[in-house]
Amino acid sequence: MESNNFFFKKKRATRSVADVSNLYCSPRKLRLVADLIRNKKVEYSLFILKNLKNKGGHIIYKILLSLIYNWKNENYEKNINNYNLYIEKVLINQGYQFKKIRPAPQGRCNKVRKRYSNIKIILNSKFKFKFKNYGT
């Protein structure tokens, strides 16, 4: 018996992923910002990031804007106003370290570590159901 594949339409993914590596910002600073926006709606998290004054907030804000435009390009036939975009996952890992030695008093030396980080943000969407009012 043959299976009819026209009954099973492939559902287009409503996910969008941004993967940025080797950013010059320490992972500790970025994780403080990532904890604020994890599992929140995109509009709310953009508002939070716009008003933060630290470096990590500005970096993640630009990545999130890029991620929204990527979602629009992938789902060009869908209206973005009909979907609830939310941040599904934010991963911040440590990249490489730039190490150098700085002279210290009494013939010693101190290590200076410039830390880089990798960011992965996954954006997902849910369809908004609009209920019509029947009656009064």
Q: What does this protein look like?
A:
The protein has 136 residues and is α+β, with helices and mostly antiparallel strands. It is built from three helices and three strands; from the N terminus they run βαααββ. It has helices at 27-37, 42-50, 55-74; strands at 16-23, 83-103, 109-127. It has a three-stranded antiparallel beta sheet, covered by helices on one side. It is elongated and about 85 Å long. The mean pLDDT is 86.
Give the tags.
three-stranded antiparallel sheet, 3 strands, 136 residues, elongated, alpha+beta
Write the layout of secondary structure elements.
Layout: E1 16-23, H1 27-37, H2 42-50, H3 55-74, E2 83-103, E3 109-127
Helix pairs in contact: 1-3, 2-3
Total number of beta strands: 3
Q: Structural class from helices and strands?
A: alpha+beta
- Spans of at least 5 consecutive residues with low confidence: none
Number of helices: 3
Mean pLDDT: 86
Short summary of the structure?
The protein is of the alpha+beta class. The chain contains 3 helices and 3 strands. It has helices at residues 27-37, 42-50, 55-74, and strands at 16-23, 83-103, 109-127.
